[in-house]
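To: structure desk
From: M.T.
Subject: fold request, one chain
Message: Could you run this one when you get a chance? Sequence is below, nothing fancy, just the single chain.
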Amino acid sequence: MYEYGTIELSGVNNGASRAMWATLLTTPVLTDGTDITTFNFTKGTDGWDPLPALIAADVTSVRQRLPETAVKVHAFADKVYISKVTARTNVRVYSINGTMTKAFDVYGDTDFPLAPGFWFIQVQAADGIKTVKVTTF
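Reply: Done. Structure tokens follow.
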């Protein structure tokens, strides 16, 4: 059992109550030097890579790609900043599990507080749409 970057929702350090055989890593690298990535954990010992088959099966000609808005989204500490807003822009905030937690319109540059965590911020403006992953702390 390896853990890296675990965030306790309660804010309490529960390290002492973890299984004695668990290893808490300080960098995203296993003790044998293997980078912690999704691919490294799914490939197993046979090097299985599902991406080529998924890419080959993707039918992109059916979907119309929406233009990406020029609106900018970034986060620092516990705030999310929305900038380059020139007209009404719809903002939606989704938790890491996909639940929408906030939805509102803005008419100019703005910022708002957001609890610590990983979030997906979607902005939809007159010139297009964009979804950005942010981390607040």
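Reply (cont.): The longest helix spans residues 51-57. Let me know if you need anything else for the meeting.
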